[in-house]
Each structure stands twice: as structure tokens, then as C-alpha cells.
Amino acid sequence: VDDEPGLRRLLGLVLSDAGYRVLEADCAESGLQAARKSRPDLVIMDVMMPGGLDGLDATRQLEVSGNGLLPGGARAGGGVDSIAKPFEPGVVVARVNTLLADRSAA
Length: 106
What we know:
The chain contains 4 helices and 2 strands, in the order ααβαβα. With 106 residues, the protein is mainly alpha-helical. α3 (55-65) links the parallel β1 and β2.
């Protein structure tokens, strides 16, 4: 979930190439709706987005519903990991691999 279309496309391509099914959303509200509907294993959420709901608030709401989370900015929102922008796409894939492996081992 990110309001920057280029970044969403890049992450979508990199994660798809790594074998993941990717859903995209351009704001926290639509990301929250999509996550509640599709129940993903992991959500990558930007923190700072325009609109009434920011990434931290959406992350808190998703945590209550039991989704795995990787917000783009801060763990304070309830996420399990964070990556500061700018980041290397390969680092994101490695972190996603680790988070999902840890989750399946639990």
C-alpha cells in the first residue's frame, strides 16, 4: 500500500518475480479494505499517505484483524518490521521471505 505509483509497480514486480502474489492499493483506506477481503499473509504499508487514514492507523486496524504486517516506516504502528525509504528491492524480498518463514514456523 503506497501512494507512489512507481514504487508500487517496482515492489509488485520484484515480489511477483520472487513468486509472491501481489495486490496493490494506492491509499490506506483501499489497502485496509483489500486486506480485509483477501486476508493476505503480509501487508507492506507506507506510513505517510494523503487522506483521512494514514498507514499507522491502517496498520493498527489490520493488526486487530490478525494480518501480518510490514509497514514502510515505523514499528510503533503495530507492525512486525520496518524498512526506511529509500530501500533496495532485494532487501524487501529478503525481509518478506524471513517474515513469512518465521510466521509459518510459529
